[in-house]
Amino acid sequence: MKTLNHAQNAANFNKDEKRVDWHDETLWWIRQKRDKSAFQIPEWESLRDAASAIKANTLSNLHQYLIEFEKNALANGVKIHWARDAKEHNDIVYGLLKEKGIDKMVKSKSMLTEECHLNEYLERKGIEVIDSDLGERIVQLAKEPPSHIVLPCIHKKKEEIGELFHEHLGTPAGNADPQVLTEAARIHLRETFLTRKAALTGVNFAVAETGEIVICTNEGNADMGAHLADLHIACMGIEKLVPSRAHLAVFLRLLARSATGQPITTYSSHFAKPRAGKELHIVLVDNGRTRQLGRAEFRNSLKCIRCGACMNTCPVYRRSGGHSYHNAIAGPIGAILAPNLAMKEYADLPFASTLCGSCSNVCPVKIDIHDQLYKWRQVLVKEGHTTTAKQLAMQTMATTLSSPTLFKIAGKTARVTLKYAPFMVNNKFNAWYLQRDMPKVPKSSFSEWYQTNRKQNEQ
Amino acid sequence: MSSRDQILTAVKANQPPLMTLPALDSFFESPKNELIIKFTQVLSSIGGSVIEVEDETEIGAFIREHYPLANIRAISPLANMQGIADRYEAENNPHKLENVELAILPAHFAVAENGACWLSETLLAERVLPFITQHLILVVNKNDILPTMHEAYQKISDETYGYGTFIAGPSKTADIEQSLVLGAHGARSLLVFLV
Ligand code: SF4
């Protein structure tokens, strides 16, 4: 089956206008919480600068930091694995479980394992995986991928969750009270934590200086899983490193405030050594990251700390939903990470943006997200990964913008067209128009207006 | 070539010229005296409670009054909580903590800006204890409240631990339509005593 592109998915999502409004408003509310929280820290902008600079240093010295991290982690009694791609990552995880004869595993949030499609892979091998983050458990029961990196089921209404829980966890039919549903999940997952011998977690930060990893959750699910299991597997992209503990201060101050407006997540747990007699394995994954490191224009995307702020603020994300991006990571950051993984498959994503720049304004590590989206468009057109219509439009625009005369003529033509023949623009070949009402036509352009008014002023 | 070497070679080939690390000195705050107020405000705003006491006997009295100790399993490694809570000898069997209702633990220090308390493994009978218990009480010295995370990491910069965690409030989730619910998978409540 051909996967639908972002525009087609977004069109489907937009069929239910009320729901779109609700989705939009919920995310905007979270964006506002982020603002309130950020405004309370006078040094917020300096913190963002520092975070960006720390990550720039990390990426420029990643080779050394990875070696240092490995050395220190090994000295702590941690086992280290390296995976070039998703398949190798999945094989390593499966190998560890198989070696111990484990066929049931509890997992806490890890976007990397979504990127690698680990759950599907393990299920095919006969391993049962239970996601323990409440939002992730909900989408798992619904057989859907998460639609947001921090809020996996942000697209779901509580009534739908009530139905799912009624079917799978036996909650009373028709009960959609978040308190009741959360309690049901708590009881169900407690049983899971207590009976699993293996726990897999993601990693928020890894410290080169000490070989420890930091995992942040509000629910406490990563800790419940890891501390009750014999085998803890932590999976991370190689870009998760920070040089030393002192740098964690900067990132922990920014992460939760940017994500949900909380001053910090409830738990920020530092794992340096395995428990006595137990095992801690860390899988370091490349899967395209070294390639992105080599692309000077897109390298900064590797600074991402997965806070989700760029999604919450994005007008396109808010009104098209996470699933429309058909990638593990949605939103503006997903749209610059995905084409690196498979250029052709994700060629539509950098176009799913208005380039308004709101994402870059909120990003705690100051990634130039909207510039990178723009740069991807150039690359994708050049490499022939866009439709002819889009290519023609982009070429016309490039020629027009580079020539003042053509620009003036084009503007005049457009104003005349919009006024007398709106169907020329408002036709089904113009994808931009489908969900929009075209603006009222100004009588004159800015430069025409300026000329007239300047003359008047000079008189 | 092993995957490790392939990845490291690719990293080395693709990483840009060295960029310098920024100085973080400007983020350290000059000592303040409203730290108790700030800590109390922030922790209360994220669902925790704070009580200032004169000495540890007050803590004992409060717990006796507010928790049905006769009917629940309470655990504490603190010497002066004996009589209220059982001392738990680490047996490397965390599953035995399944039915703990109340855990009373000391914390090394607290952080005013975000309401977090730092506990490293030396203070925990079992790593899972502060998570698996239904309710959690932490005891922190009033003089050990630091302004921000910068001071916090400075304090533990040379420390060696197998595990350590910042705990800020009770376990929570807002995954269902952004409605905040306390008591996701970890402790349902958090009470911090400042001594
Ligand atoms: S790109 Fe920036 S704003 Fe978006 S998730 Fe990553 S760190 Fe957060």
Brief overview, please?
Chain A is of the alpha/beta class and 459 residues long. Chain A has helices at 6-13, 17-39, 44-60, 62-75, 86-99, 111-115, 118-124, 134-141, 158-169, 178-195, 221-228, 245-259, 289-294, 309-313, 315-320, 331-341, 358-362, 369-382, 388-402, 404-420, 446-458, and strands at residues 79-83, 104-107, 128-131, 198-201, 205-207, 213-217, 231-237, 241-242, 267-271, 279-285. The longest helix of chain A is centred in the N-terminal third of the chain and has 23 residues, at 17-39.
Overview of the structural elements:
The complex is a heterodimer of chains A (459) and B (195). With 459 residues, chain A is of the alpha/beta class. Chain A has helices at 6-13, 17-39, 44-60, 62-75, 86-99, 111-115, 118-124, 134-141, 158-169, 178-195, 221-228, 245-259, 289-294, 309-313, 315-320, 331-341, 358-362, 369-382, 388-402, 404-420, 446-458; strands spanning 79-83, 104-107, 128-131, 198-201, 205-207, 213-217, 231-237, 241-242, 267-271, 279-285. In chain A, the strands form 2 sheets. A 6-stranded parallel sheet of chain A has the order 1-10-7-4-2-3, with helices on both faces. A 4-stranded mixed sheet of chain A has the order 8-5-6-9. Chain B is of the alpha/beta class and 195 residues long. Chain B has one domain (37-194): NagB/RpiA/CoA transferase-like (Rossmann fold, 3-Layer(aba) Sandwich), CATH 3.40.50. The relative contact order of chain B is 0.19. The model of chain B has no long low-confidence stretch (mean pLDDT 94). Strand 9 of chain A pairs antiparallel with strand 8 of chain B. Bound molecules: iron/sulfur cluster. Iron/sulfur cluster binds at residues 258, 304-310, 333, 362-365, 367, 369 of chain A.
